[in-house]
Amino acid sequence: MMMRRAAALVLVIAAAIAAVSTMAVAGPPTTHPPLELLGKPRFAFPPPPRELDGRGYDCIDVILDLKLDFDARTIIATARHTIEATRALDIVQMDLTDSLRVDGVWRGATPLRFEHRTRTLTISFDAPLAAGSRAEITIAYRGHPPREGFLGFSFERRHGVPAAYTISEPKSASSWWPCKDVPNDKLLATVAIDIPDTLYAGSNGRLIANEATGPGRRRMTWREGYPIAPYLVSIACTNYAVFGDVHKGPGEGEALPILYLAYPEHRGLAAASWAHTPEMIRTFEDRFGPYPFPSEKYGMAEFSWGGGMENQTLTSYGEYLVDGTDENDWVIAHELAHQWWGDDVTCATWEDIWLNEGFASYCEALWYESVGGIEAYRDWIRRMWWPDFPGPIVPPIYDFGGTVYFKGAWVLHMLRGVLGEQTFFAGMREYRRRHAYGNATTEDLIQAFEESSGRDLRWFFDRWVYGTGQPTYVMTWSSVARPDGSWLRVRIEQGQAEPTFRMPIEIEIRDEQGAYSRVLQDSLRIQEFLVPVRLAPTRVRLDPDDWILKDAVGGSDAPNPGGKVRLILGLPYPCPGRPPIRIPILGGAQPNWITIYDVSGQMITTIRPSIGQPFLTWDGRDGRGREARSGLYLARPSSRGNPIRLWVVR
Fold first, then answer.
1. pTM of the model as a whole
2. Going along 291-398, which residue ranges are E strands?
3. Which fold, 346-464?
């Protein structure tokens, strides 16, 4: 009976995905059945937090209805918000770019007065809204949404085919819809996109309607039934080839549809590139608990950007990464991990963004551990080492820099070493349990780990998260023969300019019988230890498995988990912005040089990085020293690696 039911579920989902794919290729009819979506939520939604940012209301629900005009590159849209007052309220303030024009605002059928300037839409009530009461506000607006931040809202053409994509992190949701553009006021969201019927528009949650709106046009409506932060609401639209897969959970009747949206010309490459997605879901479920949005889907949508964006239930995945190999599995794992860490549990403030990005970067290593064992895990952690991480993790100097991503990942790796395997992952699950479908701060994380482990961890987080730097260890040792046996004298000095670090340090002791280890509790600038040993040591190594971030790592010879690994370039900053522009080197092969091209493919200049330097800097000049004009440029490494886009603004 169990086998038959599971097989039936797979057939239902496969048939639904096949129906969507057939319609997308042949030209959709006036009706369009949604994907069959199965499963139930595992967690109750938390109550909305009160007084999130002093505006006096919580966002409960939004219905967005957008008509996309690809020729004019404009939208005509309405946003119907349901809000709840947290105090007596006579005005509502929402964020909305000045590039969009507001045509009118209504409460029900009653027009409301409004003012729109300096990216703020201020709506006035004739009678105050009482604390605890709800109101439905409809905003009609139109215009050309700007590209901003990492993308904002972008109309594009792909070989003559219309396309539209969004990236709203961190504060660009308000570039295309009126909202409270903060990460800590989640809401439910419906997104309806009116488009030419030759295109397919993906968004968050479930596809609940697909209907004709006129000759040659249709409206695709998606409903996100789990709380979502505004920056995770997304649109990905072009003439996608639609196909999918399924993830089967451990219980009877559990099946999660996986939706793939790829450029038609990349359909085969995408199928190969994304083939490990179900296995990755299983890996993270084993570590952290069930996929957070089981009654909806997980999806991947190809788009014209150099990286990925973890939009809730539908990751946007850069076209340059779709190559038919598994070399970019780390990107897929990173964005998928965000469904737990970033989408389910979302940072409460952007100062706490490492709770999103550091966690997702750490999960890359967990994926390689699942397929290559502990040495593959250690090797990937070592790839995230920098000789120097500028500033603290909280608050970061730059929200999307290496300190947030990679030192953040190292913090979790070190915490696993401090607490041990079972206690660490129990703490991760407890942290998720407390904040599922809500928001969290670093202090919330500390509390969850302290209470689940029964240990004081303030010493660890204060130094590694709120503090700066990393230790520089200098170890010397000698054998000591005493009447009561053999002993080892170990001297450890911390040579970094920053204050000392308190850490348990493993030392590997090798003698004629083999190798074994001991753990020393180090916390002083200079500290000596006397360790009983079985025989006189022939070799002593400090932290051989690199459980500690320090000024040099690589204590073990570890295999490469992915074979030839591409150079990993991070998001440039400022971008858009005035030069100089920095391009982080996040990992992978060391390049000989980076070449800058303009959009026509003409080479502008080359940049030669210094060995060990964690970033590249382009001064915005060409090879002859002339200033490059404002516009879009492409940076491509000479070694195999992902190209990235640079926007120069003069």
1. 0.83
2. 298-303, 308-309, 314-318, 345-347
3. Neutral Protease; domain 2 (1.10.390)
